[in-house]
Amino acid sequence: MASTEKISAFPYPFVENNVYRYSNNAIPLNPPIAIEVTDSYIEELNLKRGLLKMHPKRCFHSEPHTMDAQWEALDLILNQLAEYYPEKFKLVTNGGHWIFNNLHKGEKQSFTFGDPTTLDREPLDFVGRHVQEDLILMMQRDGDLFLDAGQLCFPANWSLYFDAGMSFKEIHTPIPGFQSASLDERILQFLMRIEAGSPWWRKNWSLMAGNRLDTSLETFAEWGQARKKVTKENVGELVHLRVEVQKLFRLPKSNGILFTIHTHMLPLEQFIKHTPWLEQFSSILQELPDFIADYKGISLYREVVLEYLEKELEKR
Ligand code: HEM
């Protein structure tokens, strides 16, 4: 289950500011790559496929009208895998006949682009089984965005089954303060203006007791208890910084938005080795308002983490 990674590859989520608040922190994505293949690729793919097999309803959802957008997402991702990781993936297209070769996994698939009968699964479900990212399709209509398809195996305490079909604002209702100053409306307007060929990205962060990637709302009883088990002896090993790299791509034909989420985790004992990170995160966590700490689920053990960070700072 462990899926932590090297400190050098970790996407540190904070910018200059020592204060963290919810904001539209999306920036242009350069180079415009929707996916990233890391050292944990095989391990995370196996975990994903196991979850999809055991919990298909929890991990995949699609409305019939998303089929064109699903093919566009497959097109974008398979082409990027072959372009950016040519030693691991090959894609040969001959008119509508495509052959995708996942050399890393030792799998080859031929199919006719646009013909669902030539794939064993729906296009989004197929392509999601070849990348570490969770994949969400937001469809745009009536001046709004709706979560009409997704493959989600590594949610940070939310449910695809529950959120299926919801609008952008409905999805974000549980977040305290997200409606104030019309933040949700401003982000929705920003999303609806995203243009094909100009993708965006942002990082979201949280702390988590344990290192499970599959922290679905449905299994909270299995992993949520670890929050009560954080002590000053185990905090460095048990508590992880969990960062989601989220990317947003407009799909030009269907006008949908592909939202990819790549989840990274680093135990605090690794994280604090980098002194500037230790210093900044210590200030941010100290100042973090209770309503954000509560929502992120870190209030139960925040004090233990703060004491640990302070002790480490004293040693520098
Ligand atoms: C368009 C695709 C997006 C989808 C499908 C999505 C989905 C979600 C979901 C399901 C949650 C958890 C809500 C819960 O507690 O049930 C969430 C949290 C959140 N989202 Fe989004 N989101 C999207 C885009 C964005 C964008 C573009 C922003 C900001 C620019 C954003 C900001 C946030 C924030 C701040 C949180 C709270 C996270 C935390 O404190 O850990 N989201 N989002």
From TrEMBL:
Superkingdom in the source lineage: Bacteria
Pfam families named in the record: HODM_asu-like (PF11927)
Name of protein: DUF3445 domain-containing protein
The organism of origin for this protein: Mesobacillus selenatarsenatis (strain DSM 18680 / JCM 14380 / FERM P-15431 / SF-1)
Lineage: Bacteria, Bacillati, Bacillota, Bacilli, Bacillales
